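lol ok so funny story. i was supposed to be doing the assay writeup but got distracted and ended up predicting the structure for this chain instead. priorities right. anyway since i did it might as well share w the group, maybe its usefull for someone
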Amino acid sequence: MSVRAEFDTWAADGRDRGMEQRHWHTAKHALARMPVETDETVLDLGCGSGYAGRALREAKDAGRVYGLDGAPEMARNARGYTDDPTVGYVVGDFDSLPFADDSVDHAFSMEAFYYAPDPHNTLRELRRILRPGGTFYCAVNYFEENVHTHEWQENISIKMTRWDYGEYREAFRDAGFHVAEQDTIPDRETEIPPESEFPTDDWERRADMVERYREYGTLLTVGVVP
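and the output, tada:
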């Protein structure tokens, strides 16, 4: 199944809102770090319900926000969640971003980058459209060190890229970015039951759930255009 077909189905089922609620636990901390100034242009890559772009408009007063998603139904839903004329949504391909060279100030992606068919090319495309001094904040929960997310690939037909910390840094540098920052953001809001309630439907051991959310959380890699 293609990315478009997979996530069109998710959008039709209303799962975009569920994704937003789960991702917000760590996404809000990544967004708060972004050096977005008034009137700057921001791209939300793999925008889903569009929550990140709306948040940047409200908290940072970004001048123009574009949300790009490969699934038309996701983009359609996102348009319906806001009436802000400075926030727009487009259907696009991660391998050929529909923006001019040096036309975007900052880019953000939460839980979407690893769906890119060719992540190295996606990074080159981001490097192309970002202005000098521009940043790309890439946040993922599916990465090599986080062994508790590896099974996700078994539950989805789309091929996912699972890099480790070093592979993310190397790929960013190969695409022409400086790696300004890389760390993990813990999820402190997902409720973890007491030991007496384990095993649960999803977890055999409480220690594994703690490790997944409180220790590994979300990997954030920040690239800056020289």
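The radius of gyration is 17 Å. The longest strand covers residues 130-140.
back to the writeup now i swear
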